[in-house]
Amino acid sequence: MHRDSGARGRLVQRWSARLALVAGLAAVVVLLVFAGVKSITLLGSGLAGSAISAASLWWALTLRGIGRLLAFALAVVAPLAVLALYAWAELLWVVLVSLALWALGISAGGAALSRDIGQAGPPEMRTAPPRHPFLIMNPRSGGGKVGLFHLREKAEALDADVLLLDTAHQQDVVALAGKAVERGADLLGVAGGDGTQALVAGVAARHGIPFLVIPAGTRNHFALALGLDRDDPSTCLDALTDGVELRVDLGFIGERAFVNNASFGTYAAVVQSPAYRDDKVRTILQTLPDLLTRRRGPRLTVRTPDAVIEGPQAVLVSNNPYRMGDLAGLGRREVLDSGALGVLGINVDNAAQAAELLAGRRAPGLTALTAQEVVVDADEPEIEAGVDGEALTLPTPVRCTIRHRALRVRVPRHRPGVPRTRARMDWRRLRELALS
Known about the structure:
By secondary structure, the protein is of the alpha+beta class. It has helices spanning 2-35, 38-62, 66-88, 92-117, 145-148, 151-157, 173-182, 194-207, 221-226, 266-272, 280-292, 351-358, 427-435; strands at residues 125-126, 133-137, 161-164, 187-192, 211-215, 243-253, 256-258, 261-265, 300-303, 308-310, 314-319, 341-346, 366-371, 373-378, 382-387, 390-395, 398-412. The chain is 43% helix and 23% strand.
């Protein structure tokens, strides 16, 4: 059965590669046959329109008032003008058909190449179910998912000790988790956002006991990396009776644990604003011009054992590197047990650099590194930081480290799994697959 499944997989991969090559070639042929020499003009116009739109978005973020409105208008008008040019030349249908064929080729090629990579995720270990699980639940997190999915009732039915946080008062979840361990808890878990998950995960790692993630927050990036069901967090409770254990890395900023990332610079300064939670868009638009043009904020310096990043506007230090190569990939990590921090530094000073960055290329303003230790310094005694979405102010320099496979995570044996990695397009490899 396994052999038949592997053969079918190779057959699907081969025909996906063939479809990608045929569709890609057809996209070029349609453009050349029906547009002829004009195809060069069409291509140039499209690239120019994209560049103008990207540059206009940069101006819209760095200007205020009428300048911002004009920049937004230009960002919208530029692609419309390109489409109007295509229509005037009676070649709009040619462009649309060519783009559709190219998109089909990219999609089929990505599917074929992704099968070379295989499914992601750390190895699983079968362990005995916990006897005294202790779960902390935030009833306000994620718009009230704890109540919506009846998480407390379902957990207590599985003999878990549940503590519902009092949202009217600030509570120290680290202290609560520590006391639970002293009383004999052999598993700690959280139904809440990534910030609370990280704090309690640090306690679990320190005591060497498993940690249970119940994605009841808003974004739940850690749950995504673990392959958990973010649409129905109650399914994660299955891990209490039918679960497996994963060993993953844990990041630290000083002695504070983080499961996803710590950000410095532009984004960290924005989330510090008291108005951010009530009106995110307005706060971002009001704050970004001064931050991006360096009229506000400290000058950062990032040091790793092998490199230095001088003066970045934004820095992201992550628990394992984020995927690069496309903007959609920046929210996902290939693995959680590489033993390395990911470092992204962004330094954009003009519209041209912003256009390159938005185009997805390895722009000069983007620096990507990996390291086991990262030091973020500044020309001020304190800097703002966002640690797993929580706004903090930290004394400089800030030291970030990673502890390899320090966290035992208990997950359901049956779960959606980590999304398959999107492979980079490699037409030579597609040709090899198609002819195999």
